[in-house]
Amino acid sequence: MKKLLAILLAAVMLVACMGLAGADAPVKLTWWLFTTGDAPTDWPEVEARLNEISAEKIGVTCEYKWMTAQQINLATQSGEYFDIAFTCDWYNDFATNVANGMFLDIKDLLAEYGQDMTALMPDNIWAGVKVGDAIYGVPHVKDYGMEIFWILDTDFFVNELGLDPTSYEAQHIGFEEMGDYMAKYVESHPGEIPLKVSKAGVTSWANCLADWVSMEYWIGLDWEAKGTDQELVVKSALEIPAFVQRINTLHDWYEKGYINADAAVTESMPRSIAGVVQSGQGWFGAETIWANAKQKACFISRYDGPYLNTSGLRGSITAVSSYSEHPVEAMKLINLMNSDEEYRTTARYGIEGKHYEVVEPGIVRKTELGNANMSLNAYAQGSYALGPVEASAFDAVPANPNQWTELVDRYAAEAISSSALGFAFDITPVADQCLAMKNVWEQYIYEMQTGTSDPDVVVPELLAELEAVGLREVLAEAQAQLDAYMGK
Amino acid sequence: MAIRAKKKQEEYNALDAKKNASNLSDGMLRFNCVRPAANVAYSLLFIALALVCVLPVVFVAIISITSEQSIGQYGYSFFPKQLSLSSYRYVWNMRDLVGRAFLNSVGITVVGTCIGVILTAAMGYTLSRKSYKFRGFFTYFIFIPMLFHGGTLSSYVVNTQILGLKDTYWALILPICCSSFNIIIMRTFFTTTVPDEMIESGKIDGANQLRIFAQLVLPICLPALATIALFLTFAYWNEWYLASIYISSNRTDLFPLQYILVSIEEKIQFLINNAGFMGADAQDMPSETMRMAIVVIAVVPIMFAYPFFQKYYISGLTVGAVKG
Amino acid sequence: MNRPETMTIQQKKKKRGKIRVDDLQLFALSLPTTIWYLLFCYIPMFGILIAFKKYKVAPGKGFLWSLIHNSPWCGLDNFKFLFSSNMKTTIAMFRNTVGYNIVFIVLNIVIPVALAILISHLYSKRLAKVCQTSIFLPHFLSWVVVGYFVYAFLATNEGLVNNVLISMGINPIRWYQKEAIGYWPFILVFLNVWKNMGYNMIVYMASINGIDGSLYEAAVIDGASKHQQTRYITLPLLKPVIIIMFIMAVGRIFNSDFGLFYRTTRNSSGLYNAFVTLDVYVYNSLFKSTIPTYGYASAAGFIQSVLGCLTLLASNAVVSKVDKENAFF
Questions:
Q1: What pLDDT shows up at residue A52?
Q2: In a domain, C287, yes or no
Q3: Does this complex have an ipTM over 0.85?
């Protein structure tokens, strides 16, 4: 009797399983995301909710893996399986992976399944991910042109000096100009340092100094030479006047005491304890994020940009693996992430009510739980422009829900485009020289970018050392590749 | 046969106890000391050394309760102008994570040390027997990996794809439970402490090597075992690199304690190199007081575990009764 | 030398070439460890090939296929980057690596042995325990933390040392800049000994503890002084351990403690020539690179292995001439 029952039970289960298997189970994908060290604590909950949405809308569920730079390099190089991955200039290097055939050409998939997403994206954003005719990734709509800002304490600049933060002048203080303000600061606050930096120097100080062919090895084109016949000549940073001038300015500031003395050996300088003058790459609208980080009211003032170049356009890309077993579903999911507000908002902020609350349409405020457990690099997931912006903690710094449309308009109006848009330098033929150059730069760059060393002394020294390890060969190779690229 | 082996062991122990209890030994203790003046000199030397070594740990503890503003303005100091427990509050907020990591580290350390001691002692013993036919071969066998490594990538491939260890505790335990350095030290201890006569007498009693090893050899080699156990304990407690490559970022339930501290460091290094590109949303760097707080939490437990091992070195189970 | 009459029974048995039950039993005892070595050391060793190839991953085909079919041999190309820097840096690199290690090897044997012997003489066992625990503490601190500590002393403006100098009327020194480069070798050696002496002491203390007390008794009865006891009993009985530690340290003479050199100096450019070792150079070149550099890393590791192997064999040969029994092989 018992045996009979057991057999019956087994038969029923078998039929049920077959039934289930026959039914349309959602396709399961793997998506690799960027993190500097840890995954958001509440992510499993958020992922469950995301999978609910995507299963219902497109029949896809996804397992998200958060990988550090080292982990993703190991994973890709050892041939681990993935469907979708984050890639850019400085993480999971886009150019190298494309050269290895790691990413899928998604041109056709975009046309068929990515229409919702592409409709929301400006045209010029695609230049960075195209190689020839093929498209190897979906760039994220964010601050893809480079604009560098001063982040200035409201306390000093507005309340003490009386600047009007909404005026055009206050919002466009040049780099050198800041010296005058800092002089006033040092006068009225003796013993305090206005510009405190770590060994990384003034954040993003060099991003716009040249049209970089490779910022890692400090070679690029001179923006100033645009329009002349020198426009496409690849030079070392030390041969570009704007670069040398800025180092001189930094050294001048160091000598005057505007920069902390041990900057060149300081490892970290969190925004909350750095000085009244800070810097960062961003956009008009980012002041809310920075104010939250500084825990003080501030306003921003642009000193560089906007520039459109390959590096900026490659700041944030989502690519599909060339050996993915479900490329169609992968494209559908990327399309969902970049066009569906519900999905995007959940991925970025978490669960409504638990991790964030809606303040008004287009603006949300993260709860304490949200700040603690849903802290992540949102721009690495997908479009930054889709969905609500974050509220500011300070009334003096209101959030602007229209910042992204304004950004696209501003780029269209003001941005200067690189002449070598889309060009990527492949260092393999000169890899040894590049590594040696990197080693040499490592010995000089921290002191240069913090103003510690005297440019009059070190620039010739550095140039001589670079030439001794093969700078000219590297430049020649880069030039040859660029010429070939432009010749196309 | 087993009884005879046991009796032999008891004989040795009795001899040992007799020696320690004899009047002669007591007299020895009093008579064979260094001069009092020398003792004072040595004591002062050691106290000075101890201070030099303790100071930094105390300093780290002080930094962990210094306020950020104080550091930003006045730098580090033994007598900070402003104290603050905010970094411990931050760690308290992370108590689930840190508490779990603490338990993980303890578990991994205990299991790993036990496995490591057994494997190391077994190999060390077989290599110490001069009559062992494969002695030369196996010495080379364990010597080569001491110098030659396949590198991170191939280890990663073997451990994740062939052995399937990714995101498991075993990935944090197995790769470092043996080390040729430890085996060689064990071998040296066994060669000097365990004479062939004892093994011979055990064999005459009919015991096989496994029995001899477990019942005769191990009990008299406790200082050696304690040494290796200590080394392994510290290796496991301080290990973080394995976690950084084999544990996915979302598996915080597997994180060991040191990894949390180091991952903060890695974060900072990454941000130093790339913050210029990452733009406004780049997560801000944790402060130095917070890092010090985590250091304190990682160091204090092991400090209290250490005296447990120490008794094998100072008051010691004096062994070696068979020598001479 | 090895005439039949002078050989022991064991050696005779061994020479006969038959595998005895005893050998099988010992083999069985060591089997788990052997398996461990095969899995975790020998199988991954094929990774050494990466040093001689331009590794290129073939998407979707897995690691082995990529290594065998997709990565061309490139001879010694991957090794070139170690030497392509300017002469000054290359020389400094090798000089620092080997030079510091020689000093470390000597100090890390002499000092811990001396301390282990002295600590066994202390009257108060309590004091000995407390001090030994304290001396061990630096080992728990990672070099990152030690770096902060050093910085607290040597920072230009807020550092304790400079403040003391100022109060004594001496000009402060900018410790992390080029002008202070002469001090750093001493600082680095001091830090290395400070961190490791407790750890190394352990091995020697355990050995001393294993020495039979009756030997000392017999010596005292014969009228030996403490000094003579140390010289004729303790040191000779420590010899095997010391020699092994020495040989193994020599085998790592081309490796360096990365944390010591990189973190305490904060990778300060002015001090570069004083602290650049092979590992620091490799880290600066490769580990901050965004492109995968496994070939180069593998080549650097391989050179360290080969050179270390040669020095270890050489030192082993020297030791066996003097003292055959205690040599490594």
A1: 94
A2: yes
A3: no
